[in-house]
Design a protein that fits this description.
mainly beta, 3-stranded antiparallel beta sheet, about 10% helix, binds zinc ion
């Protein structure tokens, strides 16, 4: 699929769907902080700088796991899109 087809399909439907396309990464939006900490108990994002425990399941944040979360701009010959990868 082309990016423009994916963008139009997502505007016409609220259902999530899997698509693939070939494109070029033109920008990395969060290159200086491309990760977050997730709770080892429930996998929710946790903020270790504010809370000692997960606000969802109360598990200790000391055990949280760093995970990649990269926000990029991709483009092909038809359009560009903002994409978040985990
Ligand atoms: Zn949790």
């Amino acid at each position: 699929m082309n990016i423009i087809d994916i963008m139009q399909a997502s505007q016409n439907s609220s259902k999530a769907q899997y698509c693939s396309f070939t494109g070029k990464i033109s920008n990395i939006l969060n290159r200086h902080e491309a990760w977050y900490y997730s709770c080892k108990g429930c996998n929710k994002k946790v903020d270790k700088t504010i809370y000692d425990k997960c606000q969802n399941c109360q598990k200790n944040n000391e055990d949280s796991i760093p995970r990649y979360l990269v926000k990029i701009i991709v483009e092909d010959e038809t359009d560009s899109a903002r994409v978040t990868t985990f």
